[in-house]
Amino acid sequence: MTTAAARYAGTRVPRVEDARLLTGHGTFVDDVVRPGMLHACFVRSPLARARILGVDAAEALAVDGVQAVFTAADLNPDVREQWYTLIGKDVPDTPRPPLAEGEVRFAGDPVAMVVATDRYVAEDAAELVAVDYEPLPPVVDYATAGESGELVHAGYPGNVAGEFPGAPFEEVEPVFAEAPVVVRHTIRQQACGQVPIETRGMIAEWSAPTGELTIWAATQSPHEVRLFCSRLLGLPEQRVRVVMRDTGGGFGQKVIPQREDMCVMLAARKVPGPLKWIEDRRENLQSAGMSRHAHGDVRIALGDDGAILAAALDYVEDVGAYPAPWPVGTSAAVGMFFPGPYRVPKAAWATTSVFSNTCGRTAYRGPWQFESLARELLLDAAAREMGLDPAELRRRNLLRRDELPYTNPCGIPYDGISPLKTFEQALEMLGYEAFRREQERARAEGRYLGVGTCTYVEPTSAAVGLHATEGATIRIEPSGKVNVYVSGGSSGNSIETTVVQLTADALGVDIADVNTVQGDTAVTPFGGGAAGSRSGSMTAGAVAETATVLRDRIAAIAAHRLEASPGDIELDGGRARVRGVPEAGVSLAEIASAAYFQPESLPPGVPAGLEASGRYRPEHPLIYANATHLCTCEVDVVTGAVTLLRYIVSEDCGPMINPNVVEGQIAGGVVQGIGNALCEHLAYDAEGNPVATTFMDYLLPTAAGIPDIEYGHIETPSPGPGGYKGVGEGGAIGAPPAVANAVADALAPFGAEITRLPLTPETVVALARAADGR
Amino acid sequence: MTTAAARYAGTRVPRVEDARLLTGHGTFVDDVVRPGMLHACFVRSPLARARILGVDAAEALAVDGVQAVFTAADLNPDVREQWYTLIGKDVPDTPRPPLAEGEVRFAGDPVAMVVATDRYVAEDAAELVAVDYEPLPPVVDYATAGESGELVHAGYPGNVAGEFPGAPFEEVEPVFAEAPVVVRHTIRQQACGQVPIETRGMIAEWSAPTGELTIWAATQSPHEVRLFCSRLLGLPEQRVRVVMRDTGGGFGQKVIPQREDMCVMLAARKVPGPLKWIEDRRENLQSAGMSRHAHGDVRIALGDDGAILAAALDYVEDVGAYPAPWPVGTSAAVGMFFPGPYRVPKAAWATTSVFSNTCGRTAYRGPWQFESLARELLLDAAAREMGLDPAELRRRNLLRRDELPYTNPCGIPYDGISPLKTFEQALEMLGYEAFRREQERARAEGRYLGVGTCTYVEPTSAAVGLHATEGATIRIEPSGKVNVYVSGGSSGNSIETTVVQLTADALGVDIADVNTVQGDTAVTPFGGGAAGSRSGSMTAGAVAETATVLRDRIAAIAAHRLEASPGDIELDGGRARVRGVPEAGVSLAEIASAAYFQPESLPPGVPAGLEASGRYRPEHPLIYANATHLCTCEVDVVTGAVTLLRYIVSEDCGPMINPNVVEGQIAGGVVQGIGNALCEHLAYDAEGNPVATTFMDYLLPTAAGIPDIEYGHIETPSPGPGGYKGVGEGGAIGAPPAVANAVADALAPFGAEITRLPLTPETVVALARAADGR
């Protein structure tokens, strides 16, 4: 049996999430109000590093409405097991006390939690908690942390959290020594926050009589929260229920529970009502996590013809005081993907993760993206050095289709990618040659235009550990309407729309007849959550796996009723028809009614009901997507203003389930990447004080500064279900190098090289002036 | 692969519901509070029959806080389709307008619904709604309704709602004409209410942006409510979500949505917030439904040896004004089961259902139970007439095991029953002969003791229509803990405990490791709900069906890990072991972790995950249970007080899943039956005014008047899963005749015959006096 050609997959189906979200009817965690709910507020360290000599909560406890003030002594001893399913229990990790114990390690470190009947009361009382600190010298700059003599965590000499030796440098040194052209820079990227619209938040409600804990969480992965909480408290997994309806973005920050979440979980059994904690923006920028902060000594060796001969990366990243999840593993990907989608015969790499007294490194959309930034900046620098157009240099080195499968020098086996195609498509969409002519004309007028690109290959849908499988339950209800259950949850990735589209196609029904239920661990099958650009392809697999069982059953019932062979039945428009005999059909409603109410009418061997639970298990642990970003800009060398003119993305994420969703994902990532490139900076002063804890200081890009993003799509199917690939992270990977290269190209007449972000007006002016000799 | 011997089935596992219920943490519909919730109150007719000339809501609408006053004109036109899945759409039925239209048909008929921000405001405003009635002569007594000249519903001449001609009387008349003994009485049963502790109630919350209606309901069948509501409003089935957590009893009253429920559903889209209606006790006794009200001209013909030669029943029942569900079908069962578990060569029967201007007949635990009442009273009367001990008469006529299978003269094919065994067991538990001697001694002292029995056969688990199948989804979560999903819902039948026991046994895990999720149509598989003594056996089938798939998968994985054959794996105590090698084992947690996180470690062909959805479809549409009730009493002929001395039930419901649950079901039914026999009476005066609308007037039995119930169990397996049979209704069937026979036996010295219930003190005194000639 077959379904007719997919009716919804590939089309711009309007998002099912939008009905509630656009009308203000979304349910974020702060929208959940429980009877008798209490409110938590954290007392946070004002110092980057200090010994805690004492905490006096007496005054706070005397405030009317204050129920409790918890310190490390109250909560930390209750921790039973503390590890993330995402990471596994056997990975070495630093202690992550729910509340600071003995020492505070960054300005914002939670020291105490105040619980009151009202959020305002809790905030006021938190100011009355007196913490006696003995200041200690902080390790603010990870780059010099090795020599500071102070340790963020005892037991980590030189403040090194972890290292990957990667591929040895000795093997590439001879190539660098002999190569006609060697370009080498130290590329530095600033710390950025994920800055979801919805800050973190959680409600934990303990039912003592039943021993059940219900959690409403702002999360990307309700099942990770459930497993983590179950271990943290020593509660059976099935007695913890984690519910999310809408989550206002995560971008890695909400992929796992953090320390404040643990505090709420631990305190839930000690307070007389449901406990709500909603992070405010200041806390989010101060404590929810940073990412991107890193530098690398990067080199490329090229032949006279522009062919890349070798690449080397020595990478050092800041992991802050309490990184979560443990980021050391991710750093290896920086090294392994540094060669990108280029023909690179030899490569060497090493990575070092370093602690500092700043907030912890957390996951961030494409956490390995430094590889693209470093590589693409160097390629442009090399082109300038060689007097080659950077497009021409890339053309000579980008992998061609006929070279695939190709294993890069770090052992990554690429296949099903189209880097050269996306590159050419992006250039064509721009009219690259015409732009170069325009650029020349503009320069003649004293206007500085630039074009920059970034071509990358992206590992998506890593199917390991927590992410190894994904499940779906589909119930065709007695009226023929469909409920489909996946772990998922609406965190901004349109997964509800995706699931509904795929299910409607798989069962040949109208999309309006499909409802999806997600984001409640008591309701849906186990799933890995929204991370690693996995939701689309993994869920597609889960839906396909499950729908097949139902399609076969429907075909058997329809064939029996229509006196046809099951192989001749096709499903379309909510009807099962005999192929070639369109007038012979039976509605899904009739089939469903029979399956539930007249099981005696079913053909022999066909079970009653129309419901199935299936689980997808990919054959390929990684699926490779790829893209080229292209950006043009005009730089005002007097004010330092960078105006983006056009932004083009040519993306190959395989066939698109919904182009609107794909483009939405790309757009969101691109805008984040533009912010990373031009303005965002989670900066600290020399004493370790965060200096960007409001949106007055932490500068986000706005719609006014972003051009309409133009999309080109290349579709090279992956070996996964539907040929789909992940697309959630790419936008944030490609944008920083594309923008930086465009600015560098604009500033080329000044001989400037860009080696650090962000490109704020003062930086741009300084670059132009320095090179200018002014 | 096998699981070890059942560890929980058959044992007195404490109820899992009790943790929350006994600590006051149950969540009944009135415990659900939604933000912005509005409250409904009904304006009800004070007259049994009247024309509605007008409704003036102006004064009510002027009250501060009143949001709306709905009349028939507002709500009734929105009804799209109105039929119950339980009954089917093709059964003829009277119109059932949500609000009374044109005419009110009983005192309590809802005429308008007031919606206000507060229940008190709604109640006050309801009193301000002015309804202009033109009184019409009511048809109060169904027994004379045929001659009244007035019609409750136009189009039903003689007020006959429906008739079953059954089996013709002509065929038995010759037997009656020639039989040595004929006993004939008109047996009358009064109207009773189901009287659940929780009255009816519903909250309906409409989400306009998403087109979703969420309903919290006090119901026995959330999926019936969903399907009904979906049709009523023309909403797709998957956009209606029905949630129940705890329901405080239904006993038939909550098996389907009634008119007030429809009003709430219909109004939900017209009011600006979630709409709650909680019935008060007066409304419940006035409008929620009555049952049992019937009489029958019943006859038995016997030979000189006491052998039953023929039986005949001419049955007439009161169905009130708006019966729901349509009861006419059930009345046939009264006729067909009238011969009971006795050897009856010939039988004739006919039934008539008659409208009256009283509240509608609704389902009630064992809705066909008149057959037992009539038969068992007649048998005792026959024994008295023949000078035989009623036990001896029964012994001569009860079906013996060696006569099975046996088809009764009405075509009912009994098998797997043990009437004679339960009868003998009950007598033995009492010490029947000793009691007879005690009775004689007591009579000599002027004390009147009596003993009465009732032996019946009961059709359970009728697997047709809505009830044809039952589904379960089981998810073994990554830690090896288990979630099991069935439609069910806690309405007092302990189904949560049953499901957890069965699942723990089926998977060989500790019962504490199993959690069940029920009572939410967005979450669980479709199911028929708690009705017809079906939940235990049907759910057992669903769990067994589903667990088999998982057991096979676990065995395959364990065998692979333990290098054994899947056939040699047994599951016990949360571990899979190799039979005969108890030290070789692997925990379910390890197996589950592998199934979700290391699918590559699974044996070939074994799918990832440990979750399955299955559906049970019985081979036998009916399963027969049987029992004998035995009651002894002392009657005070001066005060009319009936004191029950002992109450014994010997029940054959097959193997017991949980004796506590079985005995709890029996006890609940017995107490209801005792109430029916002795005190309850939903009475009307001659004008059709209900006179028992408080617990001061509607007399329920209390713990003080009920002896400890003694249980004997006979276990004849049924052909269903586990050999289980239904047991939910039996208690209420057997008790009224057993009690009435005991009273009759006590009053035998007065020559009194009992032919009507309830046996209130005045009735008992009258019986003794009348016979006494006083």
From TrEMBL, chains A, B:
Keywords: Molybdenum, Oxidoreductase
Residue runs in coiled coils: none
Domain Aldehyde oxidase/xanthine dehydrogenase a/b hammerhead positions: 23-137
Gene3D superfamilies linked: Aldehyde oxidase/xanthine dehydrogenase, a/b hammerhead, Aldehyde oxidase/xanthine dehydrogenase, molybdopterin binding domain
GO MF terms held by the record: iron ion binding; oxidoreductase activity
Name this protein carries in UniProt: Xanthine dehydrogenase family protein molybdopterin-binding subunit
